[in-house]
Amino acid sequence: MYHYPGDLNVSVALPDGRRILLVGETLRFLRGSDREGLCDVCPAISAQESDLLIGAEKVGGAAQARRGNAILYHTTVLVEPADMPMERLLLAMRPGHAARGIASRPRRTTSLREAGGNRVTVALAAEAVAAALGEALGERPRVGSLDEEEERQAAWLARAKYGDEKRNLSLPPTAA
Asked: Is 42 labeled as catalytic in the residue annotation?
């Protein structure tokens, strides 16, 4: 996934996810909550498997990781348009791309702002998603900041893992 200042990233950590047993159930439950929250912002939004869609175009995706009974659910929502078309950025959209590991399901993208008008902001989308997820989970969303150790870990990841040029894609030259 290409991340930029106009997208919303939300993570939900469920230390005891036993009440949501299967991967598909987790996606339906949490992805459905994302959709419910965003319906006020963009009524045309729908959920299908791990994707949020407006018509046939993707506006968000979700994934989860499980360790024992714990579940980490992560979703990204394209709120504002990217400064470059996703089709140019995403490897899976390029001709001849062969996936390593889990194959992508590439599809054309749009953003909430493009589909819903100029009133949509990242802050508005974040509020809507947090409220819906909180209601679905029976919890109030907790806003916080990273502690010193988390800041160190984030800096290390940015440098050692995500800052590695081999990990990041290089864009093909544009046709003049």
From this structure: yes
Residue 157 confidence (pLDDT): 86
Q: Which fold has domain 7-145?
A: BirA Bifunctional Protein; domain 2 (3.30.930)
Which residues make Cβ contacts (< 8 Å) with residue 72, sequence separation at least 6? 11, 12, 13, 14, 64, 65, 66
Phi, psi of 30 (to 5 degrees): -75, -40
Provide the residue ranges of all domains of the chain, joining segments of one domain with +. Answer: 7-145
Q: Is 29 exposed, middle or buried (0-12, 13-18, 19+ CB in 10 A)?
A: middle
Which among 14, 38, 42, 128 is annotated as catalytic?
42
pLDDT score of 144 more than 50: yes
- Quick one: pLDDT band at residue 83, thresholds 50, 70, 90? confident
